[in-house]
Amino acid sequence: MKSKPVIRLLIVVGGLGLAAGGWWWYQASQQQAQVAAWLPAVPALADASDELSARITAADERALSLTNAVAGLAELSRLYHANGYYDSALASYDALARIQPTEARWPHRHASILAGYGQAEPAIVLWQRTIELAPAYVPARLRLADLLLKSNQPQAAADAYRATLDVDRDNAWAILGLARIDYEAERWADARRHLERVVALTNYALGYDLIVSLYERLGLEDRAAAIRGRAEASGAFRDPPDPWLDELMADCYDPFRLALEAGTKARSGDPTTAIAWLERAIAVAPADLSAHFQLANLLVQQRDTSRALALYRRCTQLDPAFADGWAQLSGLQAQLGNDVEAERTLAAGLEAVPDSPGLHLMRARKLRAADRVGAAIAEYRTSIRLRPNEPRAYIELAVALIDQNRSDEAIALIREALVYDPANPTALGIMAFKSIESGDRTAAEEWLAKVEAQPRIEPAQADRIRAAFARQFGAR
User: Fold this and answer.
1) Across residues 46-66, what is the average pLDDT?
2) Segment 391-409, tens digit of pLDDT
3) pLDDT tens track for 332-391
4) What is the pLDDT of residues 91-110, one digit of tens each?
5) Which residues form a coiled coil (predicted)?
6) Residue 422 domain-assigned?
7) What band does 29 get if pLDDT is binned at 50, 70 and 90?
8) Which pLDDT tens digit goes with each residue over 239-257?
9) CATH at 261
10) Taking 90 as the threshold, does the pLDDT of residue 325 lie above it?
11) Is residue 336 part of a domain?
12) Using CA atoms, how far apart are residues 166 and 446, in angstroms rounded to an integer?
């Protein structure tokens, strides 16, 4: 028989267990009731894939359960946000912020949607709340500062950028933000100091366009020309990395969005993430030609040629009329030394897409390399006929004709090329050299001036043209 102390202990332990279980049940039922009260209705899913529809339905059911209500709502928020159901995502984030008021992800993601809708004021409030909850999360600070600047609050934006630098002293995006504010205020010395630091930190990945404009304003034409000559302008501001938004891509079923975001990641120097997102795009849409082709191109850049070959080959199977698939497959085979296979692929491509100007241009190059000039000229002309606004075929045909001492025909082709690309460096160089050779000083001076004004021309090439001019005509 058990002693009375043991029985009392068992009764106490059992009572505590019942109390704990009762407390857990009470807490869970309270959360379940909260989620049920704020749970957004499932939107129309007519355009959603079967897998996405199934996941949303399952998450919605979990959000109404006793044991997984909050987890179900959190999953719904990700699925809605990642797949463009923004109104439902906003309602989900609002509910999550009420239930988990100390989780910074909810106001951050909420704000990102509102900012995209142009609702700056509530987005600013939400990012301020995010920073209170997660002061070390730099992307929220940058997004707040950028939105303040966009909202014509330069002083508040400058304060936010400086606060970011207090957390991350070498953050190039924050420094660039200060540079933009200084530039607009015509504080040229401060703008220059900030921009020179940005380009030093990023090797001109950020700040390229603005520092060229600044140097031109300051009369530093040589510096501006040197920068223009080293690379082409990006033409776009690159967003900083944002892991809390990047996490959403694991729940994205839109191959177009996955490919678009992958392209941004690749340009920002994160090929690993870009590859993962493109692989997901293919997984959710196995017949998506664009994702296959984009991934193949990226893998070539990463020197993963075996996978790239397989993907290019898959492109030709998914759409035999997609000429670029044949062209890239043949080109990569040739690059790897598989000339016979490359020729076979090119022939198959021309059979599948006989009106492809790009494939005819590729064929012309191969024929010219094989010293079959007559056949190459015919292929160049076919490429021009099929796509008359593409300058490359004109220029390459002109070079082939010059080699055949048919300069008059070549010059006519170069003039046509310049109609479609007036700043083409190869065409400008040819016209300058030919004007010098012909002894036409006036024309040579005009073409040389165009060469010198074109930053895409290599400095060594421009020097050779100037030297030829000096030999023919003397000092300028």
Assistant:
1) 92
2) 999 999 999 999 999 999 9
3) 999 999 999 999 999 999 999 999 999 999 999 999 999 999 999 999 999 999 999 999
4) 999 999 999 999 999 999 99
5) none
6) no
7) low
8) 799 999 999 999 999 999 9
9) 1.25.40.10
10) yes
11) yes
12) 53
pLDDT on residue 341: 97
Which residues lie closer than 8 Å to 90 by C-beta, 6 or more apart? 110, 113, 114
For range 416-436, the mean pLDDT: 95
344 within some domain: yes
Distance CA 381, CA 412 (A): 14
User: Would you state the pLDDT for residue 18?
Assistant: 53
Would the pTM count as exceeding 0.85? Answer: no
In a domain, 343, yes or no: yes
Instruction: Taking the CA atoms of 226, 229, 230 and 231 in sequence, report the sign of the dihedral they define.
Output: positive
Query: In this structure, which amino acid lies at residue 388?
Result: P
Number of domains the chain contains: 1
> Which of 294, 236, 240 minimizes the C-alpha distance to 270?
240
